[in-house]
Design a protein that fits this description.
Elements (H helix, E strand, L loop, with lengths): L2 E5 L2 H11 L3 E4 L5 E5 L4 E5 L5 E5 L12 H5 L4 E5 L4 H11 L4 E5 L4 H18 L4 E4 L7 H9 L6 H28 L1 H6 L9 H18 L5 E11 L2 E7 L9 H11 L4 E14 L7 H12 L3 H13 L19 H7 L7 H9 L34 H16 L5 E12 L2 E12 L23 E13 L8 H11 L7 H10 L3 E4 L3 E4 L1 H18 L1 H15 L5 H22 L8 H12 L9 E5 L7 E6 L5 E5 L7 E3 L5 E9 L6 E9 L2 E7 L1 H10 L11 E4 L2 E4 L2
Length: 728
């Protein structure tokens, strides 16, 4: 009898099928393909992620005529129903279940994948064939050898993992549906004023918004305090050494002392060395990457969003380039064959020489992390790819792969070594200290320079005194904490146990989509006026729900389900009871909401009308060559493409600009030929900087005319001192 394999996505289905034998593709519709392996009598049916979702039942569809509290108390308030695109997938599951005697769940090997396979798909399978045998294919990669090996060793379904995901879905549906309705009804007068339809409340997202609110409030209320520092710049041969006074910083109360010391020593020319201590230190290579550590590394190094980092890793996994990216493990099994993967990197253009050294020095054992969760190995590059490999779908994949590959190779590297020179100095009996940290041996930094901190040049001080170049008394102010970034939000969520390794990027993104936070300069998150108003009012009535303790407790209960310490029904019952108490407290206290929003009404309206995806692009002073009314904007897309576009979106006029180099719009400099702004382009390559100038319109026209569009090639005009002038 045939076997049915269910995968989570089409790409995974194709890889699994091709690994098991020659494939015949059965096209069910435009999106759904079933892969048949006649030699083994196997059908592989892909899904499209979740095909079912929880919604309110017909009785509770109305937001006006039903009580949100009953969504918590009535078990029939929600039901699991098919998503709009699910019908063809359900039909395929039913069709092939009837002719198969075995069903293999091969959805992603994590909690959500188990939930999709065992709680979304399997019910349709068993309804069509009650006697079908069910197993699970647990894959850590989509390599052929892994698929073949694991298919021979199928495991019993991980029901507790699926139940944990199901409990999460039910809990979050009940909490989200009931609290969103209650909050929407409560804030309706405000929502009508700002033309918003509802208040979005979620167990994790609202708690995260609360923490962002607290940080932004701390920044807003921060009162800077002055302080003073005394710094001496000393000279040794060609090196300038920074020394700081031991009493730094001097607070406002000690301002007079700081000024007195400065007056005493400001003209001194010699610093006497009292102590010159040298210490060697070693820096250990990094530990393997689990999902959380990988997201932190990628968002911090590449300055990308957590969602972009997660999506890119998932794409690399589906293309058989890295192992499964959703893992809690940062520790490899002792039998993991690293040598097999390291061999692949020997001929690599960028990694080859380093890898060869690893083999020469017999460094085949990686560093050891803290957790082997038993789900998957840490994130591992499975193949050695050059940067021009056609396997990469975009530039971001190249960058993410490069970081992951280098980080993996760094696990086997030698310790880096530092030399720390600690100086104690006296300038007219005032004591200063200085520390010079130099890198003496690169070790693993050779392959992973992005992990390296900033070092000073290596030199040895052989003197008893040093000339003083200058002494400074600097007045400064204390600084508020910074706004959160993707990196620091991920760390915060992990520390507070908000969400899971897989859901955190999505939750961060939800806050932006719902106009509760904005991304501002340097990818920092700032709460919007709407988010600030909402949390400031909810604090008055619902603080226990906002604080992370509640959702942290829920996460622990869900972990208990996964580990078979508690049943799914038991956990749902516990959470419903706890949340019902919180819900009732909200109702009892909501008379404390003041609705005094006149002072922020205008800013709230503006905030709600803004498109969260819309960016403030640099603007030229040049009129659109088509409509001749509106100015042109320099647009950069999320795919790093850039061009000039008319500021009136209906005009749809575009002018190309160079793909690379830093552009400066010289708004006061007009092309004397056509009147357009001149652009200054700065390019860096091999530590050399090149500057050139273009008029975008002339440059664009040059493509049609077959001429050179750079200002330097213009026959009649030239750029002199960043001005367009006539040639002599």
């Amino acid at each position: 009898m045939p076997s049915l394999i269910i995968s989570e996505k089409n790409k995974a289905a194709k890889q699994i099928a091709e690994a098991l034998g020659p494939v015949i593709v059965i096209n069910k519709n435009k999106y759904l393909k079933v892969y048949q392996i006649p030699s083994k009598n196997i059908y592989v049916v892909p899904l499209r992620g979740h095909i079912l979702e929880y919604r309110n039942t017909a009785q509770y569809k109305s937001w006006t005529y039903t009580d949100p509290r009953e969504i918590i108390t009535n078990p029939k308030s929600i039901d699991k129903v098919a998503i709009s695109y699910a019908k063809p997938y359900i039909n395929a599951l039913t069709e092939y279940s009837k002719i198969c005697d075995e069903c293999v769940i091969a959805t992603d090997a994590d909690i959500e994948g188990c939930n999709i396979g065992l709680f979304d798909a399997l019910p349709f399978v068993t309804k069509a064939n009650r006697n079908i045998k069910v197993n699970q294919l647990w894959l850590s990669s989509l390599e052929k050898k892994e698929i073949v090996s694991k298919y021979r060793k199928l495991i019993p379904p991980r029901w507790s993992w699926g139940e944990s995901g199901e409990a999460r879905a039910i809990i979050d549906a009940i909490i989200g549906f009931s609290s969103t309705r209650e909050a929407t009804n409560t804030f309706k007068p405000i929502l009508d004023e700002i033309n918003n339809k509802f208040v979005s409340i979620g167990r994790v997202q609202t708690s995260l918004l609360y923490l962002i609110y607290l940080r932004d409030l701390e920044i807003e209320q921060f009162v800077p305090e002055p302080y003073w520092t005394i710094i001496a710049n000393l000279v040794y041969k060609t090196h300038v050494i920074k020394a700081v006074h031991t009493k730094n910083p001097f607070t406002k109360e000690k301002e007079s002392e700081a000024k007195s010391i400065y007056q005493k020593i400001k003209n001194e020319k010699i610093a006497i060395i009292l102590n010159n201590i040298k210490e060697s230190a070693v820096i250990n290579p990094p530990t393997p990457l689990n999902t959380s550590k990988a997201l932190v590394l990628l968002t911090k190094t590449l300055r990308i969003s957590a969602k972009a980092a997660m999506n890119t890793m998932n794409s690399l996994y589906l293309n058989q380039i890295i192992s499964y990216p959703r893992t809690d493990s940062d520790k490899y099994n002792s039998n993991f064959d690293h040598k097999l993967y390291l061999e692949n990197f020997k001929p690599h253009t960028n990694y080859g020489s380093y890898t060869t050294k690893l083999f020469k020095n017999n460094r085949m054992n990686p560093t050891i992390g803290k957790v082997n969760a038993g789900d998957h190995p840490p994130i591992t590059p499975l193949v050695s790819l050059e940067q021009n490999s056609p396997k990469f779908e975009n530039n971001l994949e190249k960058k993410v792969y490069d970081l992951l590959a280098r980080h993996y190779l760094a696990l086997f590297g030698e310790q880096a070594k530092e030399l720390r020179t600690k100086l104690k100095l006296s300038i007219k009996n005032e004591i200063f200290t200085s520390q010079i940290v130099a890198l003496t041996y690169s070790g693993f930094y050779e392959i992973a320079p992005f992990l390296k901190k900033v070092y000073q040049p290596l030199f040895e001080i052989q003197a008893k005194e040093l000339p003083v170049k200058k002494i400074f008394l600097e007045e400064k102010e204390t600084q508020p904490p910074p706004h959160y970034t993707d990196t620091t939000l991920l760390k915060l969520m992990e520390r507070e146990h908000l969400g899971t390794k897989s859901t955190r990027p999505t939750i961060i993104n939800i806050l932006v989509d719902r106009k509760l936070t904005n991304r501002v300069a340097k990818n920092r998150f700032k709460i919007t006026e709407w988010g600030k108003f909402l949390i400031s009012e909810l604090i008055k009535v619902w603080l226990p729900f906002l604080k992370p303790e509640f959702t942290r407790f829920v996460e622990q209960l869900l972990e208990d389900v996964k580990e078979n310490r508690k049943t799914m029904d038991n956990v749902i019952s516990i959470v419903k009871k706890l949340f019902l108490d919180l819900f009732d407290k909200f109702r009892q206290n909501k008379n404390l909401i003041t609705f005094q929003f006149d002072s922020v009404k205008s800013s709230l309206k503006t905030a709600m009308q803004q498109n969260p995806m819309q960016k403030n692009f640099p603007q030229t002073t040049s009129k659109c060559p088509t409509c001749k009314i509106n100015v042109m904007n320099l647009v950069t897309t999320s795919q790093k493409k850039r061009f000039l576009a008319c500021s009136d979106r209906n005009c749809k006029t575009y002018v190309p600009v160079p793909k690379t180099g830093r552009i400066t719009i010289l708004k006061s400099t007009k092309c004397l030929k056509c009147g357009f702004n001149v652009f200054k382009i700065l390019k860096k390559k091999d530590n050399k900087t090149t500057v050139y100038y273009i008029c975008p319109k002339c440059w664009s026209d040059s493509f049609k005319e077959g001429t050179n569009g750079f200002c330097s090639a213009c026959e009649n005009f030239q750029i002199s001192k960043e001005q367009c002038v006539k040639r002599n």
